[in-house]
Design a protein that fits this description.
This protein is 32% helix and 24% strand. By secondary structure, it is an alpha+beta fold. The chain has a five-stranded antiparallel β-sheet. It has a three-stranded parallel β-sheet with strand order 1-3-2, with helices on one face. It is globular and about 55 Å long.
């Protein structure tokens, strides 16, 4: 790595002020994607503005079915929050299986979705849950927020403050993790919101990053059972291919993980 100035933001206004004063600054949350990227010299910000010390930005609030999670809440905090686990166990379960204990106690939900790493777990949940992404400037639906691999609708001086959503009737997340990193080679989050509204988020597999497979959603909206997915197709041409798995392998994994998620959600 190279010389980088480090700053702690006191609040949202202070974070923006510090960023504007930098030559080429970047916001920092958990750092699980940004810091390795810097070590590989793929990013070289002049300054890092740490958001994790902003008061109350890690709060998790559950009011009935309405859930709001502050962006600096760690994976461990999401996984162990009693009220969240009761109303949306699928998201708590997702968080409990991210990386290892070190990653879970440092990585944050805001950092995960802001970087939109193609192998990150939370983006699939945000799509399936129909979440609203709350930034320091606006609110937007998850479908508008995620724009491509490592890409979001965030402006340069914008950062995620929280996410909010209505807990689904039932849901589950199933992933096939890389044995070493625990990143998702294919992860599928299935959420049944009732009244024929089923949403599915897929991560880790597509060249375009996280996405919603409309044919799976349509099939599951008619009949919420794994057999409904038999006729669904996953385009190999859209899948990632690397030393860990070919595009054909990942395409098959998407269907397998989707079926497992449905089985888990159905209880």
């Amino acid at each position: 790595m190279y010389d980088t100035n480090y700053h702690r933001a006191k609040d949202a206004a202070d974070a923006g002020k510090k960023l504007r004063a930098c030559d080429d600054g970047m916001y920092l949350s958990g750092g699980m994607t940004l810091l390795p990227t810097m070590k590989q010299r793929l990013a070289a910000p002049s300054d890092l503005i740490d958001l994790t010390y902003i008061k109350d930005m890690n709060k998790i609030e559950v009011k009935g079915k309405e859930v709001t999670i502050g962006a600096t809440a760690t994976h461990a905090e999401v996984a162990t929050h009693a009220k969240l686990a009761k109303v949306c166990p699928s998201l708590a379960g997702l968080a409990a299986h991210i990386g290892d204990p070190h990653v879970r106690n440092r990585g944050t939900i805001g950092g995960s979705i802001a970087n939109n790493d193609p192998a990150a777990d939370y983006p699939s949940a945000m799509l399936a849950l129909g979440a609203t992404i709350i930034t320091n400037k606006r609110k937007m639906k998850a479908e508008k927020f995620f724009t491509g691999m490592f890409d979001t609708a965030l402006a340069e001086d914008e950062f995620v403050k929280a996410v909010s959503f209505m807990a689904p009737k039932r849901g589950a997340y199933a992933k096939f993790p890389n044995p070493a990193s625990r990143y998702a080679m294919a992860g599928v989050y299935v959420a049944d919101h009732g009244k024929g509204d089923v949403r599915v988020g897929v991560t880790g597999a597509s060249q375009g990053g996280v996405y919603r497979p409309k044919d799976m959603e349509k099939a599951l909206s008619k009949s919420f059972e794994p057999g409904s997915l038999e006729g669904c197709k996953v385009d190999e041409g859209d899948m990632l291919s690397d030393i860990h798995g070919s595009s054909a392998y990942r395409a098959n994994l998407v269907k397998v993980m989707a079926k497992r998620a449905v089985v888990a959600a159905a209880g």
